[in-house]
Specification:
Helix content: 25-40%
Structural class: alpha/beta
Number of strands: 14
Number of helices: 10
Mean pLDDT: 88
Distance between the termini: 60 Å
Number of domains: 2
CATH class of the largest domain: Alpha Beta
Low-confidence stretches: 304-324
Radius of gyration: 25 Å
Order of helices and strands: EEEHEEEHHHEHEHEEHEHEEHEH
Strand order of the largest sheet: 6-7-8-3-9-10
CATH architecture of the largest domain: 3-Layer(aba) Sandwich
Length: 324
């Protein structure tokens, strides 16, 4: 089972919002769909769900045009969509029936998912009487009540404490193990790293980075090392490296634990290690730098933002020059 979004474009009021979105995700894998607010993620999701129609492009399932049916996709929205004043069990059964389940299937699946998410004791209560975390778990139960093949989760960990987060993590792993297609949208990058083998970053309606997360990390970390010392704090170590190793390494970042350096052309790590020894630096950590997804996201989207700002500034300067 493979879902493919191919060259999707969409405009609103004459303004193009999506400029040719491409990605694919297979059953048994999770895809992280990432982007800043307003980047185009939600519009893309709504096109997959047939809420919006694309101006051009197509959504395919196993190479054929994807014909949306309400039982195929389970969507957990960032903003909860259940009725706050309705009894939980009744509205879940109702939603199950809307998605094509028989009465018995809807009743059985409602009981199954409320129990799996440890909220079955609240089945007879109204949604707004529950805590924010339990409301989120009920919302997820409603998302899964029709046993969909495609599960789209938008900020699924919102409002969950560590215990409830672990329950949700277990459910997501089960969905992936069952061969479901899981699309995961979140600003909490640590969760995306935990579940997603592949990522797509959208910025200003365009895919600016996509692929296997491990391969992307390896590419972004290529030629970079982390250095930490037991006898120097990070700031002091940074000054020593600047004064003594500027020909061999370029400092590209740091945190409170280590310095991130990029090896200069012609330098190798053994040479750098010899230099550190010569400077009487007691090495606590020296190794390959593996960027976090958050580092990659900020770097990639930041670059795009800077380019857009440069283009805007250039346009303004050109406009002013033309008016002289």
């Amino acid at each position: 089972m493979k879902l493919e979004v191919r060259d999707i474009k969409k405009s609103f009021d004459g303004k193009e919002i999506l400029h040719g979105i491409n990605f694919k995700v297979e059953g048994g894998r999770a895809l992280g769909l990432l982007g800043r607010n307003g980047a185009g993620k939600t519009t893309t999701i709504r096109i997959i769900m047939d809420v919006f129609h694309a101006d051009s492009g197509e959504v395919l399932m196993d190479g054929k045009k994807f014909v949306f049916t309400s039982d195929q996709i389970g969507y957990l929205p960032e903003e909860r969509g259940l009725y706050p004043k309705r009894v939980i069990k009744e509205q879940m059964i109702y939603l199950g029936r809307l998605r094509g389940l028989t009465k018995k299937q809807a009743v059985d699946n409602t009981a199954k998912w409320l129990e799996r998410l440890q909220v079955s004791e609240y089945a007879g209560r109204k949604l707004d009487t529950l805590s924010k975390g339990n409301q989120q778990k009920v919302q997820l139960a409603a998302t899964l009540v029709a046993e969909p093949d495609i599960v789209i989760l938008d900020e699924p960990f919102s409002g969950l404490d560590p215990v409830n987060s672990q329950i949700l993590k277990d459910v997501i792993r089960e969905l992936i193990a069952e061969g479901k297609i899981v699309i995961f949208s979140s600003h909490q990058m640590s969760y995306v790293e935990e579940f997603c083998e592949d990522i797509v970053i959208i910025n200003h309606g365009e895919v600016v980075l996509s692929g296997n997360l491990d391969e992307i990390k390896a590419e972004y970390g290529n030629g970079r090392r982390v250095i930490a010392a037991t006898n120097y704090e990070v700031d002091a170590l940074e000054e020593i490296l600047k004064e003594n190793l500027s020909e061999n390494v370029k400092i590209v970042g740091k945190n409170r634990h280590y310095i991130i350096v990029e090896l200069s052309k012609g330098a190798d790590q053994w040479q750098v290690l010899d230099d550190l020894k010569r400077l009487h630096i007691d090495i606590k950590n020296f190794g390959m730098y593996e960027p976090s997804l958050n580092d990659i996201f900020v770097s990639r989207v930041g670059e795009e933002e800077a380019e857009a700002e440069d283009k805007q500034n250039l346009s303004e300067v050109s406009g002013k020059a033309g008016n002289k």
